[in-house]
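Weekly sync notes, structure subgroup
Attendees: PM, AL, DS (notes)

Item 1: joint prediction request from the bench team. They want all two components modeled as one assembly rather than separately. Inputs as received:
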Amino acid sequence: MGYQGFYFNMTRCIGCKTCQIACKDRNDQDIGINFRLVKTFELGLYPNPSIYHYSGACNHCANPKCVEGCPTGAMYVADDGTVQHDKNKCIGCRYCIWNCPYGAPQFIPELGKVGKCDSCKDLRENGENPVCVDACIMRALEWGDIEELRARHAGEELTSELPILAPPHITNPSLLIKPKKNARLKEYQEKEM
Amino acid sequence: MGETSLLVFSICIQAAIGIILFAFVAQIVYKGKQFKVAAVTAAVLAVVGVFASFAHLGHPLSALNVLGEFGQSWLSTEAVLAGVFAGVAVLYAAIHFLRPDDHTLSLGLSGIGSVLGLVAVLSMAKVYTTTSVPVWQGSNTFVDFYATTVAIGALGFLVTSVSQLQDVSKKLFGYSILVAVVIQAASTVPHILGLSEMGAAAHSSIQILNGMNTLVWAKWLLILGGAGIALYPASAKVQEGAKLNVNAFVTAGAALVIGQVIGRYLFYATLVVTNVGLM
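Output from the run, pasted for the record:
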């Protein structure tokens, strides 16, 4: 089975959060619930300060800890290799939140259940992109078969291992990041925007 | 902190398992004795624990969905084992009223309850050590859960079975409590030292712990103090007609339980997941 995931070109991202807002709008999310979230990190001191942005969502991992831990089978790997969530089976135990090293599952109090990025499955079934991909004004996000994405961006420096992220060996995320050079540095600070 | 129901669940179930474990041991060591109050206490604790776990769920009425993943997910395994254990604990208490002279059945049920309970504690610890929360990972969680089971279980059994234990040695219980809490304290040191070498989430947990220094000291003072207080009357020579110092056991039990509850509060309060965080 092939895996599908996101390609994120960090060198293009300007931190405008359009992807985040598009996702929030599509999923009609309340304050504090985000299936995609843009975070900003700053490094260095004057005269050499720098900044980078990271747009994160579910990475539809090849070894998803949320699926492994889910006590009801509500989290599952779908036929297309993406990680999906069955609301009918979910009991709202929040164990997936403790398990996911990317913070993807979100507890939705009004439902008493968890929700997460489904990579806009219904849009994709109609041949469209996830809404965050099409919303990005910098074309920094792409979606597709992870090996096809890798081939399309051959020659670029691609990684899923950055100091701000959990080590990829834990879940083998379907995520390709083209990082900015400063994103490799460990002395970062998250900046409230 | 939003994990109060889990605190109640884990402490109550572990206490109930410990009490049934020591009731089983006592039934073997002191043949012919029955421990009705201990059995009822364990049953009540187990039932309270199971109901507390429902309170944690966003959809408690769908709780039976966990049956399908038994053996696949540690949380499902824990939930099923805790539920079955609670059933055995209630049955064990009930036979003290329905068939008070059937010692074989009583021994069988406390034995089954002990084995089920000890496996349930293992699964409870696995639920936490397999998450992406560094402060819960490693052997310390196993040690902490089993030590709580043994220490509260032994002391809970002593307090609830005082009248049946007037004329017998209680050293086994006193030393079990002491050994359990000493191992619990000793395992904390390498755990905390190891955390400082882990990532940002572990560092955040250490910072939370540092901000709760008073509670950390209170926890160890109460746990070690409670074990010490219990050891004195438990290791005293058995003299015919001598009155047992019940107050010492009750005081020790209260100190130990409060200490373990504080410890479990700290366990949940230091919850920081390894992630860049969408929250």
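Discussion: Chain B touches chain A through 29 residues (CB under 8 Å).
Action: AL to compare against the crosslinking data before next sync.
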